[in-house]
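Hi support team,

I've been running sequence recovery on a batch of backbones for a student project. Most finish fine, but this one hangs at about 90% for roughly twenty minutes before it completes. I'm not sure whether the input is malformed or the queue is just slow. I've pasted the structure tokens below so you can try to reproduce it. Let me know if you need the job ID as well.

Thanks,
M.K.
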């Protein structure tokens, strides 16, 4: 009997245009200092969900990411969200 291999998952990207690729600039206070970061809408949504699930205010979550970063804050947030999603799906590569 031959095993049936399911097709690989498909990647669905948001439609290109105003909502998909435009960066949204947000201001946060970290350690008493105002700073800003620019993220695509999907990353802002994921970041808000992560803060809610963690029981942290958005500024506190961003401050925790900021403490561990080795690159600019916007990139650090994207990488943190990617790693979080990878861990949740069991793809920690």
């Amino acid at each position: 009997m031959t095993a049936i291999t399911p097709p690989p998952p498909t990647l669905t990207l948001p439609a290109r245009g105003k909502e998909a690729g435009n960066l949204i600039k947000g201001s946060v206070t970290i350690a008493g200092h105002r700073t800003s970061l620019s993220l695509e809408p999907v990353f802002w949504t994921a970041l808000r969900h992560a803060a809610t699930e963690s029981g942290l205010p958005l500024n506190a979550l961003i401050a925790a990411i900021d403490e561990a970063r080795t690159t600019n804050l916007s990139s650090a947030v994207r990488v943190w969200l990617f790693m979080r999603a990878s861990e949740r799906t069991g793809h920690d590569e």
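--
Follow-up from support: It reproduced on our side and the slowdown came from queue contention, not your input. The first strand starts at residue 24 and ends at 30. No action needed from you.
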